[in-house]
Design goal:
Elements (H helix, E strand, L loop, with lengths): L3 H16 L1 H19 L7 E5 L5 H9 L4 E6 L2 H10 L9 E2 L11 E7 L2 H6 L5 H12 L4 E12 L6 E6 L2 H13 L8 E7 L2 E5 L4 H7 L2 E5 H10 L7 H5 L8 H10 L3 E8 L2 H11 E6 L5 E3 L6 E7 L1
Helix pairs in contact: 2-3
């Protein structure tokens, strides 16, 4: 069945092939060990589903941690399925499955299902339709073959709680990438922002300044925390990958909203945490942007960068 999800994912992969699929896959491989470290303490051994497994970096890491378990890496993309089959050729405890996460319900008993860097792809690949993410989670949480005591693990981007922030680009690259974000992300949503400067408690707006004007006049960008987070999650990507990243939304829900969805399915939330990946802060954010907020007295004060990532575990 050719679903909207499947068609969109095919287009996305085609773009990645054009705009740097090797870079994309290499980045997933590089981040795989850290992701495995994070999720391993919550995995229930037995049969483990890796949904939207991509090229299999997480599956490969988990097989070393749980050698007695069976693994089912699942992906829709024929390209990725071929990679998975080649990677795990001759491995008896791994069964590669080609399927769409929105339409697919696994028909054998399983102990753990993981979505790692997956649900924002499901959401973005389906026209930013929340119901497709809910359906993908339903296919696990309400599956009769999901064992009691089994774990559903989600590791993905997270949306911060809403607040107004003031962002300072520290160099021309940061300023230029902010403008590219505003233009490229417009297909996803219009971003409400203004350039300006505080005169006392008044934020005086400036229209379309150059970076030189921003730098000379200490101008700031007034923008919501959720749009700030989307910008920060994307601006540092390689030029050839940027068009695809700008066509996606990395944070679907806040951590609290994600927890509500799991509880809606009757799962017990046993772990829920959001955090900023240190390499993003140290390698990118701190070099390119400063972030501020207004305190209770209306004074402009430094603010932490929004959390980039969440780890959420539900138990049946």
């Amino acid at each position: 069945m050719e679903t909207l999800n499947s068609m969109s994912i095919q287009v996305g992969l085609g773009e990645r092939q054009t705009f740097g699929q090797k870079i994309y896959v290499d980045s997933m491989e590089k981040s795989g060990p850290a992701k495995v470290d994070e999720i391993s303490p919550f995995v229930k051994p037995g049969r483990i589903l890796d949904i939207c497994a991509g090229a299999g970096a997480v599956t490969a890491g988990l097989t070393a941690r749980f050698p007695a378990s069976e693994f089912v890496p699942i992906d829709f993309s024929g390209n990725m399925v071929e990679r998975l089959k080649k990677r795990f050729s001759g491995t008896k405890n791994i069964d590669v499955v080609q399927a769409d996460a929105v339409d697919f319900a696994y028909d054998k008993s399983f102990d753990t299902a993981i979505f790692v860097s997956a649900l924002h792809e499901v959401y973005s690949g389906n026209g930013f339709d929340f119901s497709t993410v809910v359906q993908a989670l339903h296919n696990v949480a309400n599956n009769k073959n999901f064992k009691k005591g089994g774990r559903l693990i989600i590791r993905d981007g997270v949306m911060p709680e809403p607040e107004t922030l003031f962002v300072e680009p520290l160099n021309y690259f940061a300023y230029n990438r902010f403008l590219k974000f505003i233009n490229g992300f417009s297909a996803v949503k219009n971003v409400d922002f203004t350039f300006g400067k505080f005169n006392g408690n008044n934020f005086a707006v400036r229209n379309a300044p150059s970076f030189g004007e921003v730098e000379r006049n200490n101008l700031l960008i007034k923008i919501g925390s959720q749009d700030t987070n989307e910008m920060l999650s994307k601006y540092h990507y390689a030029e050839e990958n940027l068009p695809v990243e700008l066509s996606e939304k990395f944070g679907i829900w806040t951590l609290n909203e994600y927890q509500k969805v799991l509880r809606m399915f009757g799962l017990k939330v046993v772990h829920a945490v959001s955090y900023l990946l240190p390499y993003l802060r140290d390698t990118h954010y701190s070099r390119d942007f400063k972030v501020y907020r207004l305190d209770n007295s209306g004074k402009l004060v430094p603010a932490p960068y929004p959390d980039s990532t969440m780890l959420l575990v539900g138990e049946k």
